[in-house]
Amino acid sequence: MQSPTMDADVLVIGGGNAALCAALMAREAGARVLLLESAPRDWRGGNSAHTRNLRCMHDAPQDVLVDAYPEEEYWQDLLKVTGGITDEHLARLVIRHSSACRPWMRRHGVRFQPALAGTLHVARTNAFFMGGGKALVNAYYRSAQALGVQVRYDSPVDRLDIEDGQFQAAWVQGQRITAKTCVLAAGGFESNREWLREAWGQNARGEWPADNFLIRGTAFNRGVLLKHLLDDHGADRIGDPTQAHMVAIDARAPLYDGGICTRIDCVSLGVVVNREARRFYDEGEDFWPKRYAVWGRLVAQQPGQIGYSIIDSKAIGRFMPPVFPGVRADSLPELAQKLGLDETTFMQTLTDYNRACRVGRFDHTVLDDCHTENLAPPKTHWARPIDTAPFYGYALKPGVTFTYLGLQTDDTAAVRFAGRPSRNLFVAGEMMAGNVLGKGYTAGVGMSIGTAFGRIAGANAALAAKQQKAQSLQALTATEMKANHVIA
C-alpha cells in the first residue's frame, strides 16, 4: 500500500510579497513548494510590485534607519490610525517581527537604501527598497527559483476542496492540485468592481461611489478565493468591506496599476475643496505618511467622488512632484474657472481660510504652530494663506490599494472555521490584513503585515506538512505490519 501522491507538500496561492515569503520559508524548512500566481509572468507580484518600503521597529540606528522607532511608538501610531479597531496581540506580533526580518530579506536578495528627498518624514520609521517593490518581488522570485520552488503563472485558483476545515485540493482551470498544506495569499477584492459596488452601495445623492474608484494596484485581485472561503466554506471573517487602504490620487491616473506615482502629496501644504468648492476636512491633522490614506475615503464621500488640492507657489519644492502637472493659474478666480468650480463659492472658501490662518514658525518637518482659528473644519498645522501666484490645482479621485475584509486568523496564521483553527490551511497578506487594520493606514505597514504573516504561514505550513507526512508513514507502517501479521 502506498500513500497518495501529492503535487506539493505546501501549496502557496498568490504571487506577491506575502506569498513569496511563505514559499521561501516553507522551502527553507525542506518542503516541496508549488506557488500559483494568477497573473502572467510580466505582471507578477500583485500590489507588492508598487510598494516602496517596510515600516520597521528598531531600538537604535540600523544601516538605512536613523534614530530609534521602539515598539510602543509603532503601536501607538497604529492604534491612532485604526481608531483602536485592531487585534493588539497580532499587531504587536507584526511590529516585533518587523525588527528582525531584514537580515532574512537580504539573504534572499532584497536591498535597502536611505530615504530620498521628499520621503524624509519616514527616514526613521521605514526602510526603503532599492529599486522599489518590483526589485523586491524580482529578488524573491530569483531566490525561489534557485531554491527549487515551482512557480506557475496564469494560474488563477477558483475554488478549494475543504473538508471539516482541512484543505484537500485547489482547482485551477479544471485541474485539481493537491498538497498536504496550503497558504492563501491571493490578495483582497479591490479590482472586483461588482463587489465594491455591493459593499459601498448607493449614497443619498443616488450615486454609486465605487463606480468612480481607481485601482492603484493589480487588476488581478478580484477576491475570488476570499468570497469562496467566506460564502461557500463559512470561514470566519473579519473587517468591514468598505474599509480599505484608499488614497486620494490624481484623477487622471489609469484604472489599474498606477501605483505610487499617482499620489498627490501636497494636500497638507494647501487646502482641499470638493465639487461644490467647499473644504471638508483638516488638511494639517498630522504628518502626511500617517494621514495620506484617509483622504481616499474622504473624497469617496464627496459629491461625484472628486476633490481638488489647491496650493500656491510657496508649496512648490516641498513635496514629491506628481507625474502629471497641476492646473496652473495666475489668480485664484482663474484657477476656479479652469477647474470648473463655482468662482464665488471658491473665492469665499479661500478668503475665509486665508483670513483664519495664524502663521507662526512654518516647518513642514514638525507639527508646527501654523494653524487656523474660528474656521470649520480647522487646519491644525502648516496653515499659511494661499496668496502667492502662480496657483495650482490637482483633481483627486479615490484610489483603492487593497481592501480590509478578510479571513480571521491567530498568531499561527491558521484560517479559522467556527472559531477553530485549521490544521493545514493558512493565510497571509491582504487576505488577513483586516485583523490588524480595521481602518486607516500608516506608510509601510502593509508590507510589515505581509512579511510577518507570510513567513509565519510558510513556516507553519511546512511544519504541518512534515507532521502529516510522519503520521501517514506511521499509519502506512501500521497497516503493513497488520497485513504481514495476517499473512503469517
Automatic annotation (TrEMBL):
Cofactor(s) in the UniProt record: FAD
SUPFAM superfamilies: FAD/NAD(P)-binding domain, Succinate dehydrogenase/fumarate reductase flavoprotein, catalytic domain
Organism: Diaphorobacter limosus
Record-given protein name: FAD-dependent tricarballylate dehydrogenase TcuA
Keyword Membrane among UniProt keywords: no
Keywords carried by this UniProt record: FAD, Flavoprotein, Oxidoreductase
FAD-dependent oxidoreductase 2 FAD-binding domain boundaries: 9-437
Segments traversing the membrane: none
Gene: tcuA
Superkingdom, taxonomy of origin: Bacteria
Residue ranges that the Swiss-Prot or TrEMBL entry lists as coiled coil: none
InterPro entries assigned to the protein according to its UniProt record, in alphabetical order: CobZ (IPR012831), FAD-dep_OxRdtase_2_FAD-bd (IPR003953), FAD-oxidoreductase_2 (IPR050315), FAD/NAD-bd_sf (IPR036188), Succ_DH/fumarate_Rdtase_cat_sf (IPR027477)
